[in-house]
Every structure is written in C-alpha cells, then in structure tokens.
User: Which sequence fits this backbone?
C-alpha cells in the first residue's frame, strides 16, 4: 500500500508543479467546482480479466476534465509529458465515460 501512496503522491506533486494546471484531486475527494479538474486514481491489475484484482502500485489512471474535448486533450498531453519526466510510461488514452474528458493510464 505504501508503494501505491508513493506513486499517487509523485504523480500529484508532478502535476501540481505544472503552470496553469487546474486542481488535481484523488478519486473520491470533493469536486472543487470550476470547469477543469484532473483526477488521479489507482488501477487494478490489468493482467486480470475485467480488472477484478486488487489495485497495483505500478498502474495509475489520470482523467482530465475540461469544458471542451480539445482542452481535455491539451491537459492530457501536458500530464503525459510531465509524468514521462519522472518515470511514468504512457499506456493509452480514451474518452472519459462520465463527462467531457480524457482518461489515460500510466505504468511506473
């Protein structure tokens, strides 16, 4: 569990250090309002069918929400380049299922 917390903390600190970045939250934290937000979440073991195993310290999910798809993609690109500098490998990205946003997965 400590490894997962370290992974989440590193990602959060990295994203907060970016200029003009919207609030960065952990999944489950209250929404601060506003049109943009970045949400961090742990990801279950992708080797398991249907993501049904416990979360692993190696995988991270980041969702960038914005008022437009273009802005969500811009935030995703900023996050991807910043996280690459601290050792996160980009796995893939897709539209967020619950709003205007882009969901990306990373491996550390």
Assistant:
């Amino acid at each position: 569990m400590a490894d997962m917390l370290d992974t989440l903390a590193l990602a959060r600190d990295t994203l907060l250090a970016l200029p003009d970045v919207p609030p960065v939250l952990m999944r489950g934290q209250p929404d601060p309002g506003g049109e943009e937000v970045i949400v961090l979440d742990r990801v279950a073991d992708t080797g398991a069918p249907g993501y049904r195993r416990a979360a692993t310290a190696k995988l991270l999910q980041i969702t960038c929400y914005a008022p437009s798809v273009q802005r969500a993609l811009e935030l995703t690109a900023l996050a991807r380049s910043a996280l690459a500098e601290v050792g996160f490998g980009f796995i893939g990205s897709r539209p967020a299922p619950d709003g205007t946003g882009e969901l990306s997965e990373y491996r550390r």
Notes: Helices lie at 2-16, 69-85.
